[in-house]
Amino acid sequence: MNPRLLIVSTCALGAAFLAGCQQPVGGVQNPNGVPVTEMRPDERGFVAGTGVESQDLVAVTDKMVRGILGIPEVANAKTTPRVVLEPVVNETRFPINKDIFLTRIRSNLNEHAAGRVRFLDREMMKTLERERELKMNGQVTASSDPNVVEFRGADYFLTGKLQGLTTRTSAGVSDYVLYSFRLTDARTSEIVWESSAEIKKQGLEDAAYR
Hints:
By secondary structure, the chain is of the alpha/beta class. The chain has helices at 3-21, 54-70, 72-75, 100-112, 125-136; strands at 82-85, 89-91, 118-119, 156-169, 172-185, 191-203. Strands 1, 2, 3, 4, 5 and 6 form a 6-stranded mixed beta sheet that branches. β5 and β6 form a beta hairpin.
């Protein structure tokens, strides 16, 4: 064999060998034999702890949506009630995204209640006020008089609280979570509706959230 060709071939084989031995630096390494499983959010999966899980979220928020639509203040309202969401209070030991409960209640009502309830987007107030100022200054066009305040006030405030009790022994861990939500009249401060759901779980594995 040509000596130069022999050297080139040897180097190529060496590079291939080193590449094969090199360990991957990053990326997801799925365990062998464990494929990804797609599940419904209301299903209890094989990866489970004693904490708040998606099936709890679905069950609790579905119950709250049915409850809100059934009260006279909504079902028999002559004008559509305007609701503002207030942050959920999480008093459990689980560091979950608590506001996901209100997000699902709001989206379900907006999707299925056919306008029987309206939500005021207070998260957008800074953006809305800036847009109004641009219209008042004539920097952008306006389809109505920007000097007239048309931002609506709330008729009701919707909020909730998550509270929990935990027992831990050598046999495992037990978690009880009380999910309560209420609708408060913005004018009178009366609680016109309140509902709750209770979920208790026992197991060997504690929950971990990321």
